[in-house]
Write a structure and sequence with these properties.
Blueprint (H helix, E strand, L loop, with lengths): L12 H8 L5 E3 L2 E3 L6 E5 L6 E6 L3 H17 L7 H17 L1 H12 L3 H22 L7 E2 L6 E9 L2 E5 L5 H14 L3 E5 L6 H13 L6 E3 L4 H10 L5 E5 L2 H13 L4 E5 L5 E4 L5 H13 L11 E5 L3 H14 L18 H17 L1 E4 L17 E4 L6 H4 L6 E7 L2 H8 L7 E5 L3 H10 L4 E4 L18 E2 L6 H5 L1 E9 L1
Parallel strand pairs: 7-8, 7-10, 8-9, 10-11, 12-13, 12-17, 13-16, 15-16, 17-18
Antiparallel strand pairs: 1-2, 3-4, 5-6, 6-20, 11-19, 14-15
Helix pairs in contact: 2-8, 3-5, 3-7, 4-5, 4-7, 5-6, 10-11
The structure holds NADP nicotinamide-adenine-dinucleotide phosphate and magnesium ion.
NADP nicotinamide-adenine-dinucleotide phosphate (NAP) binds next to helix 8 and helix 9.
Length: 501
C-alpha cells in the first residue's frame, strides 16, 4: 500500500508491516478468517483520502459464527468458570501489550481516524491500557449480598453473574479507547464478547485482536467483526444468541438497536448516544482559563466528540470579551495532517461526515452570525477532509445549528442574563450527556450542576474522564453508565437464592 505522509515523518516498521500485511480478516474463535462470502471494504486515511487497507465485511452468517463461538466459550468455559483473579490477569496482560505496542497503535489510530499523533499517543493509548487495568482489579471483586427478609427461617443471598454473550458496537472517534471502554468491564465480569469497530476506523481494533491472541485469551472469548452498520451491526443487535448489546454512537442508530432488541430476544441494551452539551461562562469566571477551556471543549478532536461543548452560554457582561477571545483562539488553531508536528486538530473522519458538517455550516450562515471559520481547507489539505474551527453567534435556540449534534468543529455561542433563563435554555435540548460551568462562585457552580439535566458536569474544567468515574446520558443521550463500578451493572445479572433453614 502506498502511503502519502508529511515528508518529515517516517512510519515505524511495525506499523507499515501491519498495513502491508494484506487484507484484514475477522477474528472468530481465536482464528483470523475471511468473510464467508469473501466480501471486503476499504478503510481510508481521512487526511488525504487514500485507501489504507481492505477489510473483511462480516455478513449475517459471519455474525452467527461469532455468536456461536462466543456462546461455546461462555457455556463450556474456561472463561466464565475461571476465578475473577485469573480473568484479571488476562486483562492486565492485554494492558501491558497495549503499552508495549503503544507507538504503533497510535500511528494506526492517526492513519485511520486522522487525530494528531501526539493526541493518539499521549491521550487515547494510555487511557485504553489504564481502562483494562482498572477493570482487571474489579474482576476479583464482584460480589453479591445477603438480604434480610421478613419471612422467618429464610436465608437469602444474591449472586452476580455475567450477562453471557455481549455485542459491543462502537464509533470512530476514539476507536481503540471505545473498544477498551466496552471490552474491559465486559471481560472482567466473565462475559464473552463480539466487538464491531466502526467501518471508518477498524485498524486498531484489528491490531488489538492480534494482541488478544498474544495475551492467550481462550478461543471465542473475544471475537472481532468488521463491517458496516448494516448488515454487520444490525445482525449483531438482532441475533437471538446475543444476551446484551452495548452501543456508542448516534441517537438514531441507538433507536434501531433498541428496536432490534425488542423484536428479537429482549436482550439487555445500554446506549451511550449523542450530545449537544452546554458550556457556561459566568461573568465572575477566571475568563482567561474559561476561554481556553471552552475553546478546547468544542474544537479538540475537531468537534467529533460526544461530549463536545457545542453550545456556549456567556453571561452578558462578558459576552463581547469572551466571544472575541474565543475567536482569537480559534484562529490560532493549526489544522492539518495528524503526522505534522505541532498540529492541534486533524481532519473530519470521512467524506460523508465532512459533507454533513459543511451542510450545517452553510445552513448556519443564513440563520446566525458567522464569527470565524466556516471553510473547508484547500491547498495542501484539499485531498483530505479538513474544516476550519467555526463559531456562530445566535439569539435563537431552535436553529438546527443549535439543536442538532453536528459532530464537527462548530460552536454555537449565545448570551444569557440570569441563572433561571440559563437553566431553562441549557436544558431545552433532547440530549443530556454533559455540561460545563465556569465561575469562581461555588454556590452558582453547584446550583447549575444540580439543575442541568446531564450525566456529567465539569466545573472550571471540561472533558476529563477516568476509568473510575461513571459516564452516561440523560434523556436521548442514552441510558446505562459506563466506567466506574456502575459499568459492572451493565455486564452482570443478579440472581436471588432463597434457602429455607
Ligand atoms: P452511527 O451510525 O451511530 O455509528 C456507530 C456504530 O454503530 C458504528 O459501529 C456503526 O457501524 C454502527 N451501526 C450503524 N448502523 C447500525 C445498525 N443499524 N445496527 C447496529 N449498528 C449500527 O454513527 P455514524 O453514522 O458513524 O455517525 C453519525 C453521527 O452519529 C455523527 O455525526 C454523530 O452525530 C453521531 N455519533 C456520536 C458518537 C458518540 O460518541 N456519541 C460517536 C459517533 C457518531 P458503521 O460505522 O460500520 O456504520
Ligand atoms: Mg455509520
Amino acid at each position: 500500500m502506498s502511503l502519502t505522509l508529511p515528508s518529515d515523518f517516517t512510519l515505524r516498521e511495525s506499523t507499515r508491516k501491519f498495513i502491508d500485511s494484506g487484507p484484514k480478516q475477522l477474528l472468530i474463535n481465536g482464528a483470523w478468517v475471511p468473510a464467508l462470502d469473501g466480501q471486503t471494504f476499504s478503510t481510508v486515511n481521512p487526511a488525504n483520502g487514500e485507501e489504507l487497507a481492505q477489510v473483511a465485511l462480516a455478513g449475517v452468517e459471519d455474525v452467527a459464527r461469532a455468536v456461536h463461538a462466543a456462546r461455546a466459550a461462555f457455556e463450556m468455559g474456561p472463561w466464565s468458570q475461571m476465578s475473577g483473579a485469573e480473568r484479571g490477569e488476562y486483562l492486565w496482560r492485554l494492558a501491558d501489550l497495549i503499552d508495549q505496542h503503544a507507538d504503533e497503535l497510535a500511528e494506526l489510530e492517526t492513519l485511520d481516524n486522522g487525530k494528531p499523533l501526539r493526541v493518539s499517543r499521549r491521550g487515547d493509548l494510555p487511557a485504553a491500557s489504564k481502562h483494562f487495568r482498572y477493570y482487571a482489579g474489579w474482576a476479583s471483586k464482584l460480589e453479591g449480598s445477603t438480604i434480610p427478609v421478613s419471612i422467618p427461617n429464610q436465608f437469602v443471598y444474591t449472586l452476580r453473574e455475567p450477562a453471557g454473550v455481549v455485542a459491543l458496537i462502537i464509533p470512530w472517534n476514539f476507536p481503540l479507547l471505545m473498544a477498551a471502554w466496552k471490552l474491559a468491564p465486559a471481560l472482567a465480569c466473565g462475559n464473552t464478547a463480539i466487538l464491531k469497530p466502526a467501518e471508518e476506523t477498524p485498524l486498531t481494533a484489528l491490531r488489538l485482536g492480534e494482541l488478544v491472541l498474544e495475551a492467550g485469551f481462550p478461543d471465542g472469548v473475544i471475537n472481532i467483526l468488521t463491517g458496516p452498520g448494516e448488515p454487520t451491526g444490525a445482525a449483531m443487535a438482532a441475533n437471538m444468541g446475543v444476551d446484551k448489546v452495548a452501543f456508542t454512537g448516534s441517537t438514531e442508530t441507538g433507536r434501531k438497536i433498541l428496536r432490534a432488541a425488542a423484536d428479537s430476544n429482549l436482550k439487555k441494551v445500554s446506549l451511550e448516544l449523542g450530545g449537544k452539551s452546554p458550556n457556561v461562562i459566568f461573568a465572575d469566571a477566571n475568563i482567561e482559563s474559561a476561554i481556553k477551556g471552552a475553546n478546547w471543549a468544542i474544537f479538540s478532536t475537531a468537534g467529533q466528540e460526544c461530549v463536545a461543548g457545542s453550545r456556549l452560554f456567556i453571561e452578558r457582561p462578558v459576552y463581547e470579551q469572551v466571544l472575541d477571545g474565543l475567536r482569537q483562539q480559534a484562529e490560532r488553531i493549526r489544522v492539518g495532517s495528524g503526522f505534522t508536528p505541532k498540529v492541534h486538530i486533524g481532519p473530519i473522519v470521512s467524506a460523508a461526515q465532512l459533507e454533513r458538517v459543511m451542510g450545517y455550516i452553510e445552513g448556519g450562515r443564513e440563520q446566525a452570525d458567522l464569527v470565524t471559520g466556516g471553510q473547508r481547507l484547500g491547498g495542501d489539505l484539499a485531498e483530505g477532509y479538513f474544516i476550519q474551527p467555526t463559531i456562530f453567534a445566535h439569539q435563537k435556540d431552535d436553529l438546527p445549528l443549535v439543536k442538532d449534534e453536528i459532530f464537527g468543529p462548530v460552536a454555537a455561542v449565545t448570551a444569557f442574563d440570569s441563572m433561571e433563563e440559563l437553566v431553562a435554555r441549557a436544558n431545552s435540548t433532547a440530549y443530556g450527556l454533559a455540561a460545563g460551568v465556569w465561575t469562581q462562585n461555588l454556590s452558582k457552580a453547584h446550583r447549575f450542576a444540580q439543575a442541568v439535566k446531564a450525566g456529567t458536569v465539569w466545573i472550571n474544567g471540561y472533558g476529563m474522564f477516568d476509568a473510575a468515574a461513571p459516564f452516561g446520558g440523560y434523556k436521548e443521550s442514552g441510558f446505562g453508565r459506563e466506567m466506574g463500578k456502575e459499568a459492572l451493572d451493565l455486564y452482570t445479572r443478579v440472581k436471588s437464592v432463597w434457602v429455607s433453614i
